[in-house]
Amino acid sequence: MTMTFDVASANANSNQNGATNLETAILTAITEARNTCEQTGDGSANCAVAWDIVEELQAEKSHQLQAKKHKNSLENFCDRHPEALECLIYDV
């Protein structure tokens, strides 16, 4: 079961192709969860943990999609131009 989490988290944390890597991690975790449940039984603790990993990855994908939708025009501008005067944050 540890191997499943390591593969999924490695894919989820990669910044190369954010959504694509997260989707790949979800598909990998689903496959691993199905295999785990076939081997250990549907009521086993390992099966429950495997599906919890799938649920967490899907929740992360949902959170990332919501975060993208709520950015305003200034936030989008600052993402592209972090050095702009409008984007600088000063501690007073």
Overview of this protein structure:
The N terminus is likely disordered. The protein has 92 residues and is mostly helical. The chain has one domain.
Secondary structure layout plus pairing:
Elements: H1 2-13, H2 18-40, H3 45-69, H4 73-80
Helix pairs in contact: 1-2, 2-3
Based on the model shown, name its key terms.
92 residues, mainly alpha, 4 helices, disordered N terminus
Dominant shape:
elongated
Helix-strand string: HHHH
- Determine the N-to-C terminus distance: 49 Å
Structural class: mainly alpha
Using only CA atoms, what is the Rg?
18 Å
Proportion in β-strands: under 5%
- Contiguous helical run count: 4
Uncertain spans: 1-5, 7-16
Our count of domains comes out at 1
Mean pLDDT equals 82
Share of helix among residues?
over 70%
Quick summary:
The chain has 92 residues and is mostly helical. The protein is built from four helices and no strands. 15% of the residues are buried.
